[in-house]
Amino acid sequence: MSDLRDLYQQVILDHYRSPRNFGVLDPATACAEGHNPLCGDKIKIYLRMDGDRVDGATFEGVGCAISTASASLMTEAVRGLERPQADALIASFLALMTGDGNGAAAVDLGKLEVLSGVKDYPVRIKCATLAWHALRAALEGGDSEAVTTE
Amino acid sequence: MTAPAAAVENEQRDSAVFDVERLRACFPILEREVRGHRLVYLDNAASAQRPEVVIDAVSDCYRTYYANAHRGVHALSEQSTDAYEAARAKVARFIGAPDSHEVVFTRGTTESLNLVAQSYGRRHLEPGDEVLLTEMEHHSNIVPWQLVCEQTGARVLAAPITDDGELDLDRFAGMLNERTRVVALAHVSNALGTVNDIPAVVELTRARSDAAVVVDGAQAVPHMAVDVAALGCDFYAFSGHKMYGPGGIGVLWGRRELLAAMPPYHGGGSMITRVTFERSEYMAPPQRFEAGTPAIAPAIGLGVAVEFLESTGLDPIERHEQELLSHTMEVLNDLPWVRVPGHASNAGSARAAVVSLVIDGAHPHDVATILDEQGIAIRAGHHCAQPLMDRLGVPATVRASFGLYNTHEEVDLLVSGLHEVRRIFG
């Protein structure tokens, strides 16, 4: 049962119960939707870019603790980053989830490390990565078709 | 012996015969452990497990007499053909079909429903015609009708359900008209367990339209005695894998005269009497609808699953599962943080042993992970019934679905698992 405590750490439960940066961002310069057809969860990411810098990021949608906490933590982490740093953060987080050592060291994930327990639950990895795929889509132009985890 | 005395004796015999521990011993997989706990399998509505007799029948076919059916003149082909056709006869008897030629083997309920939609629906639907479904349908009884409606210009309508998760028969009746060509509905809802009153639906339909009544019986056949003649419907579809049989085999029962008038679904070998490049002539049902080499061993295994259900007795199975359902609902009613949408405690209609629940403050996927950690297999999600989830106003539910081998102890384990969810998410 200790594994479950690794998965559902207090930080994750806290961000699930009180998600940060939750809601529509107005004005936003880009947005993208992520969809997990397996469970029907949908998440929408809003970005406000100031040139190449992420000035603000919010999300909305209904999801499980893992997808909600991941989105919440992500919007905090990405704010203020220049585009290349944001890309590196996404790559590092996805590498952490897939257990791919390369790139994991490239960026200090800080608080996002609380989600590392997810990689021991393969069927839940898509929950954690849903928001991140949507973020990548938003950075690459946004307002395109919804990205899916499939 | 007088009739009541006989009924009492039957009752006593049934309860004496239904020995859940003895039945559990027939299912090898139930002995396994999951994450250090004995498996508690409550995902039967998705797919049930198989008794050893079914596993052995499939294995025995491949080990000792397998060959293609309806083809060769050699000994093995004859033996395979006989066993395959014997399975068809067992299935026909099991569902009260007047004639085994009315039993078409398919890959499963989904293929059965697509077959009806394409072979019957495509021929009978015209622009402006209507296919009437219900709000509680599985995607496999929605999408095939949408596809054929796109092809024909007909349209799909869904009869509403009540907040208690029951088909609103008055509003259903009000939607029937002379443009209704097909009524398609579940016998038992896969997400709610609601048992629809098929004879009533048939009666209403016959009084107001010429529509064919197509019943998705996937969730009914393993849990209650089904007699297609008594139901009065025109088509009845179900799957082997939900009734303790092999995967990859299913059934479409259809009225003989309707099947006889339908064009083939798939073209290929085994379904023709004569082929030239100009045209082909088709065999009579059921062969007309069984193009290509069928799933011979799975069909034989399905026949054995039918015998297993018959020897256990559908009435005792239903009684046992109803007791599990009552037990579950009783315990859940005491937990204020658990809701069972679409399942009012005073609901009027019968329910199969399927419970879809939501826990305040815990998403179904998290519930499923926490239960899985205790060896409890349930389903979390939309259960291939997204329109129903929209109707109930929930994105997803946790679904526990019972089978003949589940026990009261397992109900208690489920509930203690839910308490663990509450402890973590509380």
What's a concise summary of this model?
The complex is a heterodimer of chains A (150) and B (426). With 150 residues, chain A is an alpha+beta fold. Chain A has five helices and four strands.
Characterization of this structure:
The complex is a heterodimer of chains A (about 150) and B (about 425). Chain A has about 150 residues and is α+β, with helices and mostly antiparallel strands. Chain A has a single domain (about 1-145), classed as Alpha-Beta Complex (Sufe protein. Chain: A). Chain A is built from 5 helices and 4 strands, in the order ααβββαααβ. Chain A has a 4-stranded mixed β-sheet, covered by helices on one side. In chain A, strand 1 and strand 2 (about 40-50) form a beta hairpin. With about 425 residues, chain B is α/β, with parallel strands linked by helices. Chain B folds into 2 domains: about 5-30 and about 315-425, Aspartate Aminotransferase, domain 1; about 55-310, Type I PLP-dependent aspartate aminotransferase-like (Major domain) (Aspartate Aminotransferase, domain 2), CATH 3.40.640. Chain B is built from 15 helices and 17 strands. In chain B, the strands form 5 sheets. Chain B has a 7-stranded mixed β-sheet, with helices on both faces. In chain B, helix 3 (about 50-65) runs antiparallel to helix 11 (about 295-310) and helix 12 packs parallel to helix 15 (about 410-425). In chain B, about 50% of the residues are buried. The interface of A and B includes residues 7, 13, 65 and 127 of A.
- Might you state the CATH topology name of the largest domain in chain B? Aspartate Aminotransferase, domain 2
Largest interface: A-B, 20 and 18 residues
Low-confidence stretches of chain A: none
- What kind of assembly state do the chains in view correspond to? heterodimer
Please summarize the sheet with the most strands of chain B: 7 strands, mixed
The strand order across the widest sheet of chain A is 3-2-1-4
Q: Which class best fits the helix and strand makeup of chain A?
A: alpha+beta
Q: Which CATH class of chain A applies here?
A: Alpha Beta
Average pLDDT of chain B: 94
Number of domains of chain B: 2
CATH topology of chain A: Sufe protein. Chain: A
Strand content of chain A: 15-25%
Helix content of chain B: 40-55%
Total helical segments of chain A:
5
State the strand order across the main sheet of chain B.
Answer: 4-10-9-8-7-5-6
- C-alpha Rg of chain B (nearest Å): 22 Å
Q: What portion of residues of chain B belong to β-strands?
A: 15-25%
What profile does the largest beta sheet of chain A have? Answer: 4 strands, mixed
Please, how many domains of chain A? 1
